[in-house]
Design goal:
The structure holds two protein chains of two kinds.
Chain A: E1 10-16, E2 21-30, H1 32-48, E3 53-64, H2 66-76, E4 86-89, H3 93-101, H4 104-110, H5 120-154, H6 161-172, H7 176-200, H8 207-245, H9 248-254, H10 259-296, H11 301-311, H12 314-340, H13 348-377
Parallel strand pairs in A: 2-3, 3-4
Antiparallel strand pairs in A: 1-2
Helix pairs in contact in A: 1-2, 5-10, 6-10, 7-8, 7-10, 8-10, 8-11, 8-12, 8-13, 10-12, 12-13
Chain B: E1 7-18, E2 21-32, E3 36-41, H1 47-54, E4 62-67, E5 70-71, H2 77-85, E6 87-90, H3 102-113, H4 118-131, H5 147-159, E7 165-169, H6 177-194, E8 197-201, H7 205-211, E9 214-219, E10 224-229, H8 231-237, H9 241-247
Parallel strand pairs in B: 3-8, 3-9, 6-7, 7-8
Antiparallel strand pairs in B: 1-2, 1-4, 4-5, 9-10
Helix pairs in contact in B: 3-4, 3-5, 4-5, 8-9
The chains are: A alpha/beta, B alpha/beta.
């Protein structure tokens, strides 16, 4: 009989004798529904008539599942009438077998206790230790990845170029539609939002100057990098994380192959090369998006071109493309690191993918800020 | 082994497979209340797939699986829920919920489907874990357990609502002989004393001889059942040489039939 079946007929009778001597007679069929009702009623009855000793006549129990047996154990442990342990009598042999199988002492010993309350200071301490450990792992990973990349470049046969090509296609070529859409929309939105304030000064034509510089130096690279972090960084973390959970990483190591040189370097090389290319593409598409808005405002294409050519210099494009190399290496590196850090368990891969995206975007923004400061100091 | 009763599951003219690939066809058999029914066959022949058809996870290509009078594929709403409540399923991998402790995994069906007080739920859940010797690991996460421990915890979860029918997919695989023998004793006990029906997929010969009331053996080449009955009887008297070879654990493959083809 299912525990969750409809309620069966089960009842109890409480008999109080001299000096608190109490006996309980249980009758009927005990399933989850009937036991739940009897349990609560019995608890209330014993609270009103606290016993000095307790005896349970279980001979009237016709059928019982785990919940009925649990009720008997609860009485037998003295948990219902605090401190007074009940004696169980008359249980049918087949139910007695189930009853005897359960060890009350093991139950009390092994029932997990709720975790102790951790205060804010402990949380802060643990988080600090975690950040310190994470930083050390990141530093070690950087060193190993750099050494692995140099070693593979020195021995090109080790590189597994077909894997580099596969990643180039998956993370680069297959990302073209989403990069196109988002870049075009960003260019379009920026030109559109700038139109009203520029119009106040009759300076709408200068949207072309702003668009060229902002897209080439900053926005196109940043948008591309964030798309790649969400799309490919998480994919690398999930891919390597699944390999870790399935012990494929262990298998590689026992075959004498370094996961760093076999898996990570290919991803770093491919992503570092494809991010600048995608950035160039994003610059073109986003500027095209902005130009569309300007043409809609009535400016001829040739005017927009001349206006943009006046301010947009090659080194602006070089700055954007140069940052693409840095962003690409960061996205692939952090994706692979989070993948290799994956712990055991089914939710671990998801956690790694999330951490890869969060850390990837954070590092991209920090790197962008650092590069901006350096370029300012160098007057570039 | 137990006394058996009326028919609880009827599989009729079942054709099963994936996409266009047919694994088995014209399967006909019945499972009786209280019996331990074992599904045998070579690796990859479709034993676990048959189990998934029996619990309604995969719709058949043709034929039906009925619980009493209800077809598990076509029945909907409350009737379907009622049938599902009668099931307990242990999957081959354990399939414990990774974000919950072992105890929370076993408590989940109790919390969802019963109105018992928390103390009662804890007692029921811990008693199921004690049955499979997993109570000491009640507070652990599934990721902290070995494969065998995960399977035992999964059996406890499958039993948490005291279902009438338990489906176990390779319960003994990966367990040490002592735990495996304990599990066999538990299956016999639950089947004999509480009348629980078991449908078990297993390869373990000692386990088969200990628990099985009746077995069916699937063959991938003929896509059909090539043996049905008592395991000791099939071992000694089956007309099919591959069935005898399987039960006698002989390595050489006879020419008449081959055990399986890869899925």
């Amino acid at each position: 009989m299912s525990l969750a079946a409809t309620e069966s007929a089960a009842s109890f009778e409480l008999r109080s004798g001299d000096a608190g001597k109490t006996s309980i007679v249980l009758k009927g069929q005990f399933d989850a529904a009937s036991t739940a009702r009897v349990w609560r009623e019995l608890e209330a009855a014993l609270r009103h008539h606290p016993p000095s000793s307790l005896e349970v006549d279980a001979s009237g129990i016709e059928r019982s599942d785990g919940s009925g047996i649990a009720l008997l154990h609860f009485l037998s442990m003295g948990a219902m009438a605090t401190g007074v342990k009940a004696t169980i009598k008359g249980l049918r042999p087949e139910l007695d077998g189930l009853f005897q199988r359960f060890s009350e002492s093991d139950y009390q010993k092994n029932l997990p206790q709720p975790p102790p309350h951790v205060n804010v200071a402990e949380h802060a301490g643990e988080a600090t230790v975690q950040v310190w450990k994470d930083s050390k792992e990141l530093l070690a990973f950087l060193g190993e990845a750099a050494a692995g990349t140099l070693s593979n470049l020195a021995h090109p046969k080790r590189m597994r170029w077909h894997e580099v090509r596969r990643i180039f296609e998956q993370a680069g070529v297959n990302a073209l539609p989403i990069v196109s859409l988002i870049s075009a929309l960003v260019g379009l939105i920026i030109a559109f939002e700038a139109a009203a304030p520029f119009a106040m000064f009759g300076a709408q034509i200068f949207i072309a100057n702003m668009l060229g510089i902002i897209m080439a130096r900053e926005m196109a690279g940043l948008v591309t990098a964030i798309i790649l972090a969400g799309r490919s960084g998480s994919a690398f973390a999930a891919e390597l994380g699944t390999m870790k959970v399935n012990e494929e990483i262990n298998a590689l190591e026992t075959l004498g192959l370094s996961p760093m040189r076999f898996l990570v370097v290919q991803r770093i090389v491919a992503t570092t090369l494809l991010t600048p290319l995608l950035t160039v593409y994003a610059i073109v598409v986003s500027i095209a998006g902005g130009i569309l808005v300007m043409m809609a405002m009535g400016f001829p294409l040739i005017t927009i071109y001349h206006q943009m050519a006046q301010t947009l210099r090659v080194h602006d494009i070089a700055v954007g493309v140069g940052k693409g190399f840095i962003f690409g290496a960061l996205i692939a590196g952090i994706g692979c690191l989070r993948g290799l850090q994956t712990k055991k368990g089914p939710s671990a891969v998801g956690e790694s993918a999330t951490r890869a995206v969060v850390s990837g975007i954070l590092l991209i923004i920090i790197a962008d800020a650092v590069v901006a400061v350096i370029l300012y100091i160098l007057h570039l | 082994m137990s006394q058996t009763g009326d028919i609880v599951i009827t599989v009729k003219d079942l054709k099963m497979g994936y996409d266009d690939k047919v694994l088995m066809e014209n399967l006909n058999f019945q499972v009786r209340r209280g019996e331990v029914f074992v599904i045998l066959g070579g690796s990859g022949c479709g034993k676990s797939t048959l189990l998934k058809h029996m619990i309604g996870l995969i719709p058949p290509m043709a034929g039906s699986v009925c619980f009493g009078q209800e077809d598990i594929v076509t029945v909907q709403g409350d009737e379907r829920l009622k049938i599902l409540r009668e099931f307990g399923v242990m999957y081959q991998s354990g399939a414990l919920f990774g974000s919950m402790t072992v105890l929370e995994n076993v408590l989940l069906p109790l919390n969802e489907f019963t109105d018992l007080p928390m103390e009662a739920k804890n007692l029921v859940a811990m008693s199921k874990l004690q049955l499979v010797s997993m109570d000491a690991a009640a507070g652990k996460m599934p990721a902290e357990l070995s494969g065998g421990m995960q399977k035992r915890a999964a059996i406890a979860r499958a039993m948490s609502l005291d279902p009438g029918i338990l489906f176990l997919d390779e319960p003994s695989a990966g367990l040490d002989p002592i735990t495996s023998a304990g599990l066999d004793a538990l299956i016999n006990d639950l089947s004999g004393n509480l009348g629980i029906t078991f449908v078990v997929v297993t390869h373990e010969l000692p386990s088969i001889y200990t628990i099985a009331d009746r077995v069916i053996m699937l063959d991938a080449k003929t896509k059909s059942i090539i043996g049905e009955g008592d395991p000791a009887d099939l071992r000694d008297h089956s007309p099919n040489p591959w069935v005898r070879q399987f039960f006698n654990r002989q390595a050489d493959e006879p020419k008449e039939t081959s055990p399986t083809t890869k899925q």
